[in-house]
Amino acid sequence: MAELLRQPDTSLRARAIVPVQPHGSRLPLFWVRGGPRFRRLAQKLGSDQPFLGLDLPFADASKFRTPYRLEDIAAYMVRAMREVQPHGPYSVAGLCVNAVIAYEVAQQLMADGEEVALVGMFDGHNHAYYTNPLADGRYSGRVKYHLTNLFRSDLKQGSSYLLDRLDEARRKIERTVWELSAANGKNGNGNRPHNTDFIVHPAFHRYEPRPYPGKITLFQSSDWPEGSYFDFRVGWVDLVGGGVDFHRIPGDHPSMFTEPNVELVAAELRARLDAGHLQSAVGISAGTDARG
Questions:
Q1: Where are the domains positioned within the chain?
Q2: 62, 69 in Cβ contact below 8 A?
Q3: How far is CA 194 from its chain centroid?
């Protein structure tokens, strides 16, 4: 720690790469905004598989131009990845909103002529697909889902669920108000967001994904109701030229990365990393055992 304080590393790699599990001879799996939540998954993937988080430090993110664009966030992460691994094949993954960032990261890598071996998307949905909420019964499916969760609970659980949904709505409204205020130059926070989520989420809601020539591997947790609204595949199948490799993981949104579900997730990821022939360590320069 003293050495780091004396000679701090201010490089992009030091700011943006989180060494969740940096050791091993294979090419790394890059996880968008990956941190301690994914330590167990990194361990399950094995000691020879580097697992590197792609962070978006607030100090850097707050310098992005408004309105914030998911393409700019992905471009920042691509630069960080290339400081570690100059050339493909690349493997990138993410959870929820960050899964969609991983999709755009893969888009930019392929546009630069690089090979992308794996795009792992966990509970990642295409927000642009839902811009017409009355199509295909999508809106009614969502209303039914919330009403079912509300009324199947006892009074205490139902009240807690309702408060959670109201808090979620409050945060969405707060982000929207900030976005509108910043656009008009009237934001009381110096036209800057409070944290990185105020940059990522508006960018996600504005993002319209382009067709992707490769394949994506989509993992969806099982605690979603039946119906097209909550089938995340339908938002991607018409965009992904190489097809959607779909897997249903038991549990809810966060429990995919805890026991016992993390074992299943790790097994599926390992199989796809192996299929991508990622044994070679060419191009790695993560600064520890994951090196070129």
A1: 9-275
A2: no
A3: 20
DSSP output for 108-119: HHHHTT--EEEE
On the CB side of 257, CA atoms within 13 Å amount to: 16
Q: In angstroms, rounded to a whole number, what is the distance separating the alpha carbons of residues 118 and 105?
A: 11
Strand partners, 244: 216
Q: Is the peptide bond before 36 cis (omega within 30 degrees of 0)?
A: no
Q: How far is CA 165 from CA 102, 124, 188, 212, 213, in A?
A: 27, 20, 26, 33, 37
Sign of CA dihedral 72, 73, 78, 80: positive
- The whole-number pLDDT of residue 241 equals 96
CA distance 169 to 161: 12
Q: Are strands 90-95 and 116-122 parallel, antiparallel or unpaired?
A: parallel
Q: 12 is written with which tokens?
A: 């992009």
How far is residue 133 CA from its own chain's centroid?
23
Residue type, 122: F
Mean pLDDT of 260-286: 74
69-100, pLDDT tens digit by residue? Answer: 999 999 999 999 999 999 999 999 999 999 99
Confidence tier at 224 by pLDDT (50, 70, 90): confident
Spatial distance between the Cα atoms of 151 and 149, rounded to a whole number of angstroms: 6
Query: Which CATH code fits 9-275?
Result: 3.40.50.1820
pLDDT of residue 138: 47
The whole-angstrom separation of Cα 153 and Cα 1 is: 49
pLDDT tens string 170-223: 655 655 555 555 555 444 444 556 789 889 999 999 999 999 999 999 999 988
